[in-house]
Design a protein that fits this description.
The protein is mainly beta and 448 residues long. The chain contains 2 helices and 31 strands. The N terminus is likely disordered.
Length: 448
């Protein structure tokens, strides 16, 4: 991939996913979402590029390929010193990570200049001074460097959507950016499909869901099995029975493994009249497309999202009203596999009152080994409208009681749209994607 700018399709997608929806209801499979069982025209399965040469007019730039190779070359020398700049030289910016079945850590994102990827006293310097690349890297269970793929020059842009990464039970790696690509555990590209995703999710069998304006279900060989038109979803997850849940700021939907929509829950959301670049009703900003959705060991769905309008989040005849304090709060809701609300509430942020400037967003979810829920959020949360955005973690019991809140550092406003993820390992340690971390694997690490 070359320099990444927000395409017209992606920009329209951002607006589409954030458009207002109707009042909250649970709708059965007769809804307007259209499911097809043929490959949609925007999805193209490609032959692995490392085994079959491309036509001459589509061959990558030889100089770009040479820079990729230089970026991947491990050197024992110290990295060349560079001046950190959050826009032009952000260091190692991780936008997604995954811990595979053997405890290996895989990260992806954007890297500028040179960095030492060796956590020991030795040196393993990678990168190219003065250049930025999309990358995919693997570390072993001791977080020692294994390999890295530099995947073309890339620069930050407004509404930046970073790549995401997942693994299957065999350790194969699935990277999602301008489509979905599968790599072997050793980093060999096996296949790619081209699409316009916002994120992807992969189950232990290697089946994936590409989430975006439409959802596509792709098998482990890269074949699109079915697609759901008008999904308007930014993330997805599987349950233990193979059902698929997709979500966005306007709610969530459940599909069977064969692509039948089983139900949906709609939320109301506004987008175009305020945003993180200011607290004016005419700021012209956009709410993040990112939401968090996971299923627990009992196949319940936990959903975190940005609440900026009054919503009844209970789809039954009962009522559960959540309203933002000011512009926007982070909300979390738990539903059964059948769409019944178990509980819902807003994240309690310390030292904030009604008159305090608050613009909070919900990004992702993970589970501790005992079932407790960890929520990742962020936003402009202080009294000053010009302050930088801050990340936070909040912990909830399985019954919805918030038991802990932890501030993390400031984060970059230009990765506001997507690119904030968390993973909690089998020991209960939580890892958060970050920008500018000095030590590999370039993640924030906390005990919650």
């Amino acid at each position: 991939m070359t320099v990444k700018k927000l395409s017209v399709v992606t920009f329209v997608s951002c607006l589409l996913l954030s458009a207002c929806s109707s009042e909250n209801t649970v709708t059965p499979s007769s809804s307007s979402t259209k499911v097809t069982t043929t490959n949609p025209p925007t999805i193209k399965t490609t032959i692995p590029v490392d085994t079959v040469p491309a036509p001459e007019d589509t061959q990558p730039d030889p100089e770009a390929l040479a820079r990729n190779k230089e970026c991947e070359r491990v050197r024992p020398t110290a990295p060349k010193p560079t001046q950190f700049d959050s826009w032009d030289s952000p260091g190692v910016l991780t936008t997604s990570m995954n811990i595979d079945a053997e405890g290996n850590t895989i990260i992806t994102g954007l890297m500028s200049d040179e960095h030492d990827f060796d956590i020991t006293s030795k040196r393993k310097t990678l990168g190219v001074n003065g250049w930025s690349f999309k990358f995919l890297a693997k570390f072993n269970e001791r977080q020692e460097f294994s390999w890295m793929k530099c995947q073309g020059e890339e620069t930050l842009s407004h509404w930046y959507v970073g790549p995401t990464v997942n693994t299957d039970s065999s350790g194969n790696i699935y990277q999602c950016d301008t489509g979905l690509s599968k790599f072997s555990p050793a980093g060999k590209l096996l296949w790619s499909v081209v699409s316009e995703p916002l994120s992807c999710v992969t189950n232990s069998s290697g089946e994936s869901v590409i989430a975006g304006p439409e959802a596509n279900f792709v098998d482990t060989n890269g074949k699109t099995i079915w697609s759901a038109k008008n999904c308007s979803c930014s993330t997805a997850t599987f349950d233990q029975e193979g059902n698929i849940f997709v979500g966005g700021q306007n709610g969530l939907k459940k599909f069977s493994s064969s692509g039948k929509q089983l139900w949906k829950i709609n939320f109301r959301s506004r987008n175009s009249d305020f945003g993180p670049n200011g607290y004016s009703e005419y700021g012209g900003g956009f709410v993040t497309d990112q939401v968090g959705i996971r299923t627990d060991r009992d196949n319940n769905i936990v959903f975190v999202f940005s609440l900026n309008l009054k919503n009844d989040v209970d789809p039954s005849s009962k009522t559960k009203i959540l309203s933002p304090v000011w512009f926007q709060d982070t909300a979390i809701a738990k539903y059964t596999s059948g769409g019944e609300l178990l509980w819902a509430q807003k994240v309690k942020i310390p030292k904030t009152v009604v008159k305090t400037t608050r613009y909070a967003e919900g990004y992702d979810i993970s589970f501790k080994p005992n079932g407790d829920i960890i929520v990742l959020g962020g936003g402009k949360l202080g009294k000053n409208t010009d302050q930088d955005l801050r990340l936070f973690l909040a912990k909830f019991t399985t019954d919805g009681e918030q038991t802990r809140f932890m501030w993390l550092g400031e984060y970059l406003s230009f990765i506001h749209n997507m690119g904030h993820h968390i993973v909690t390992d089998t020991t209960g340690r939580t890892y958060v994607t970050s920008a500018g971390e000095k030590l590999p694997p370039f993640l924030i690490s906390r005990d919650m």
